[in-house]
């Protein structure tokens, strides 16, 4: 039975007055599990106004107290970890292992937010001139906004609002209209952790609601993760309205295989990183570049990919779950057809995948192409499905040139036994996140998520030190005190307290 998803405004979960509602479906069955409102303009305005008013008091809360809120929150998230994972599976279709990973990676960012005191420290220089000192102070911006995608409904909201709120801001979250349930539960636990009313708001909707937030004069910064066209729109619209914007976009991540690499490790990691989570992650490996004799391994790669099959979230034998929607499935199937028509060899075709007991699910089986050329649509487009395309080159230099010629720059990896080859690759590659014998090099939260080029619009990235810089302003103070003004004499009284 479906239910109506609430909005979260000024510390209260309540039903929307919207006349426009959307279906939230389980991708494994396409059954409706909830109804989602497109928040009214009044509701969005109320959420922003509440966040603006709350900011006045929240920014004055001592940094250690804000850190303790995050300590409480991460503990509650850990206690409800499995429950959150099951809820997340119900709306994304992820198998339970992927869902647990989604939740845990979010918890790691909250742990980093609990370290906010050291991250907010400024700098000091004494005697920059005679009796003059200078120092910097880190202060919050105000009301910040997050617009999150369907594929990581726990991790990506937790990339955003804990860091922003710990830094002294208030936050308005607009989760994906396809997966709103996890965000609501995250907010419930945040409230239970002791978050004051108004520090976090949740509104729902689509482009209309997003555009209203982007234009709102009281919102200072916008964080976004999603597709390339939407990221461009978010960045251009937000900056047009003089906001600070970080917009994480699409990817086409390459794994370069040198002939001296460990063959078993290469194949195992290629399978998991390409079809895991149904390929619906911006750091998925969707291109394998085989250098020299490594191309002989494609047959073995096919054999291992054939062993993986999708299934329901609670199926222990399932390698991954369904695609998020019927539309997403049709798009992937269309790209597979185009790949065949354009001359790529379809070594393994998952177009006609079926899962027993789930005839209406959005299933696509593991799909492998070889003989792919860079002018083919399956190479040029982010497929966002369990599809791996293979290219062949003769040298490492050619592989580096191929990766650098691609417009995206989110993540890449090289598998090799040569330290010199790895050093050359990491130095010359024009991609923000590099793995060496690691397929998906997502940084831990004390670093930052650093996609480059067409995978990111903005200047400062998510979580880590860069997130604190994104959500704060730096104030520099220069002070001078005159020794002649020091009080002296018998009437001087020092009061200690």
From TrEMBL:
CDD domains: ALDH_F6_MMSDH. Its EC number is 1.2.1.27. Keywords: NAD, Oxidoreductase. GO terms for biological process: L-valine catabolic process; thymine catabolic process. It holds the Pfam family Aldedh. Signal peptide: none annotated. InterPro entries: Ald_DH/histidinol_DH (IPR016161), Ald_DH_C (IPR016163), Ald_DH_CS_CYS (IPR016160), Ald_DH_N (IPR016162), Aldehyde_DH_dom (IPR015590), MeMal-semiAld_DH (IPR010061). Residues 20-477 form the Aldehyde dehydrogenase domain. One of its GO terms (molecular function) is methylmalonate-semialdehyde dehydrogenase (acylating, NAD) activity. It is an enzyme of class 1 (oxidoreductase). SUPFAM superfamilies: ALDH-like (SSF53720). Belongs to the aldehyde dehydrogenase family. This is methylmalonate-semialdehyde dehydrogenase (CoA acylating).
